[in-house]
Design a protein that fits this description.
Blueprint: H1 2-7, H2 10-29, E1 36-40, H3 43-55, H4 66-71, H5 74-88, E2 95-99, H6 103-121, H7 132-141
Parallel strand pairs: 1-2
Length: 142
């Protein structure tokens, strides 16, 4: 916990979480569906992906030497993520934790989640506020 507290004072972190929750609540109150996915990979998978970035010249652009230093902070990051997920997951804007070591599964899970929400929303094209048949006749008469 020490490293997380070094990143920002606890009261500042709480203020930010409250601000995020208020913003998401306002979106939901306005009829917006908020879907938040946390794409979680394991420590081992992160290492494998970083090594791959170093081994393949076409992936060098995705690598930063600071990635190695940041791995030393893994426990602090995991703790920070846990707190953020707990504080900012609400009934109107829930977090969905998606296991992402396997990209095919990550893609399937996110796609399935979005499909379920779209089916619930049952989106429809807006109805025209004009007489379609009359406009068609007028257009064809020109």
């Amino acid at each position: 916990m020490a490293r997380v507290r070094e990143l920002a004072p606890r009261d500042e972190i709480e203020r930010r979480y409250d601000q995020i929750s208020r913003f998401e609540k306002s979106l939901a109150d306005d009829g917006t569906t908020v879907i938040k996915c946390f794409l979680h990979i394991s420590f081992q998978e992160q290492r494998r992906r970083l090594v791959k970035r170093l081994d393949r010249p076409d992936k060098h652009w995705k690598f930063s030497p600071s990635d190695i230093d940041d791995r030393a902070l893994w426990p602090a990051f995991q703790e920070a993520y846990t707190i953020a997920l707990e504080r900012c997951s609400t009934s109107y804007a829930p977090w969905y934790v998606i296991p992402s070591d396997h990209k095919w599964y990550r893609n399937w899970a996110v796609g399935r989640l979005l499909l379920e929400h779209l089916r619930e929303l049952d989106p429809r094209y807006p109805k025209p506020d004009f007489d379609v048949a009359q406009c068609r006749r007028r257009l064809l008469a020109q």
